[in-house]
Each structure stands twice: as structure tokens, then as C-alpha cells.
Design goal:
The model is unreliable at 6-21 (pLDDT under 50). The strands form 2 sheets. The chain has a 6-stranded mixed beta sheet with strand order 2-1-3-10-4-11, sandwiched between helices. Strands 7-6-8-5-9 form a 5-stranded mixed beta sheet, sandwiched between helices. Helix 2 packs across helix 8 and helix 2 (42-57) runs antiparallel to helix 9 (241-249). The chain is an alpha/beta fold. The chain has helices at residues 2-22, 42-57, 69-77, 89-97, 144-155, 174-179, 191-199, 224-235, 241-249, 260-270, and strands at 24-29, 61-65, 83-86, 101-107, 116-119, 136-138, 165-167, 185-188, 203-207, 215-219, 255-257. It has 10 helices and 11 strands. 42% of the residues lie in helices and 18% in strands. The protein has 2 domains: 8-111 and 212-270, Periplasmic binding protein-like II (D-Maltodextrin-Binding Protein, domain 2, 3-Layer(aba) Sandwich), CATH 3.40.190.10; 116-207, Periplasmic binding protein-like II (D-Maltodextrin-Binding Protein, domain 2, 3-Layer(aba) Sandwich).
Length: 272
């Protein structure tokens, strides 16, 4: 009887293992410094997109929510993910530079992402150079906003710019730091935070060069034909009702094809 059970278990394992072997993993990181106020879980929101990807690849696609940047970097370095939708550009660009991943597309509306420096209306600071030696409020140190800002300060020959920074958890907490006098200036990549700051009379002292964020990558372990299919699917989502519905669930309006020249420039800008 025991031997028979073993045979049955072995047969079941053989019958289901191919399905598991074909399962594709989509890793998603939506950013570390934005508060997600959407209703429903991330798995609920991405289900329509997963269904479309599964249909296109003719195999199940499973979502893996990777919130910690260090875990995301490690997973990409170890090639654990078949696809990845990544907010922090420096991590995505590094994965592409490694040669293990190919950049397929980036989210519309996020190709001109900049770190902007906010100061009070009556601040004596007049230019970015005036930030030398000042206390600066930033989102978390690993945030792409902070990474862009630090890279910009280095290009301006600021010595050890990290020592000037005070980090907070969320982008929308930066204005509070300025208002309470904890810092002389604050940095945000959020258009909404900038807009509200200016509506209250605050100023934008300056900004960094643009870097596209929210990048969609695919592992080069996946065949070129399948990679092309995924690219066509992602860049064509806004052209059909099912795609539009999937985009709406994840708060995107569409995707544009990866621009190698722009991404190379961004990598240089960030010191990658």
C-alpha cells in the first residue's frame, strides 16, 4: 500500500511539474516613498495585466510584490524574475547594464521624472549652488529621487553630499520638514507635492535633469520571440479596451518603447 502511494505521488508530481516549470514571475516595485491609497491589494490591481501577459505567453504569470530595494536588486542580480516593473530607475538601469535583462518600455507620464528642490518663499537661497553646507530634506536615501539629487550635487562638485541630507519616509512629508525649520530646503519628485507647495507660496529653487522611471524589463533567458511579444503587448495596451482596463487598475495611461539613447544618458547621469 505504501509503495502504491509513492507511485501515485510520483505520477502526480510528473503531471504537474511542467506547469510549474513554465510559470513566469513578474516582480513589481512601485516605489518606496509614495503612499499607496488605492483600494484593493496589489495582486488585485495587477490581475488584469497578469491575465493579458499569461494569454500572450501561453503560460501562467505570477506577480511578486518586492517592496524592499535591496531584495529587488538581489533578485535581479540572481536572475530570479522573468519580468520586472520597476519604479527606481537606478535599479532597473543597473539590471540592464548587467546584460541579464532587456529594457522593453517605460510608463507614459514618467519619462520626464525630476528631483525638484523646494524652499520657502522668503528663503535667501537663490540657486542650487547655494545649497552647499545647508540641511536638506529628502525621501528615503534609496529613493530614486534622492539618488538623482545626490548625483546632481556630485556633478556640481559638492563634497560628500550625503552628509547634508535628512531623510523621511514619504515624499509628502518633505514640505513639513521645511515648514518646521528642520531643514533649509527639501527635495521631491512628486508633481502633486510640488504643485501644493507652490500653491502655498513656496518656491522651486531648481531641479535635476530628467530620468525615465517605472521601467518594464524582461529577462534575456526568455526567447527573443517572446520578448518581442511582451513588448508589443505592453506598448499596445492603450489601443484596446482590455488593455485600457488593465492600465486603469495599475494607475498607468500606457507605455512607450525603451529608448536606448535616453537610457544610456540616464545611466551616465546617475553614475551607473
Amino acid at each position: 500500500m505504501f509503495a502504491r502511494r509513492l507511485l501515485v505521488a510520483a505520477a502526480m508530481a510528473v503531471s504537474i511539474s511542467p506547469a510549474f516549470a513554465q510559470e513566469a514571475i513578474l516582480a513589481v516595485n512601485e516605489g518606496a516613498t509614495y503612499q499607496d491609497l488605492e483600494s484593493g491589494t496589489i495582486h488585485d490591481r495587477y490581475k488584469p495585466l497578469l491575465d493579458l501577459l499569461s494569454k500572450e505567453l501561453k503560460r501562467p504569470v505570477k506577480l511578486l510584490n518586492v517592496e524592499k530595494y535591496a531584495v529587488l536588486e538581489k533578485g535581479l542580480a540572481e536572475e530570479k524574475y522573468d519580468m520586472a516593473f520597476i519604479h527606481p530607475a537606478h535599479i532597473g538601469l543597473q539590471a540592464v547594464k548587467s546584460g541579464n535583462y532587456q529594457g522593453l518600455c517605460t510608463a507614459k507620464g514618467f519619462t520626464d521624472y525630476r528631483a525638484r528642490v523646494l524652499v520657502p518663499k522668503d528663503s535667501p537661497l537663490k540657486s542650487m549652488q547655494d545649497l552647499q553646507g545647508k540641511k536638506l530634506g529628502v525621501p528615503s536615501m534609496e529613493s530614486i529621487t534622492t539618488v538623482m539629487f545626490v548625483a546632481n550635487l556630485r556633478q556640481m562638485n559638492f563634497s560628500q553630499p550625503e552628509k547634508m541630507l535628512t531623510a523621511t519616509r514619504y515624499q509628502d512629508a518633505v514640505p513639513f520638514m521645511i515648514e518646521k525649520g528642520f531643514v533649509d530646503a527639501g527635495v521631491t519628485g512628486s508633481g502633486a507635492v510640488e504643485k501644493e507647495w507652490k500653491s502655498k507660496g513656496g518656491r522651486v529653487l531648481g531641479e535635476t535633469s530628467a530620468v525615465p522611471v517605472k521601467q518594464f524589463l524582461i529577462s534575456k533567458k526568455i526567447g527573443e520571440a517572446e520578448r518581442d511579444k511582451v513588448r508589443a503587448l505592453m506598448t499596445g495596451l492603450a489601443n484596446n479596451e482590455a488593455g485600457k482596463a488593465a492600465l486603469a487598475r495599475i494607475g498607468m495611461t500606457g507605455f512607450v518603447q525603451w529608448d536606448a539613447g535616453v537610457m544610456k544618458q540616464a545611466s551616465t547621469q546617475l553614475g551607473i
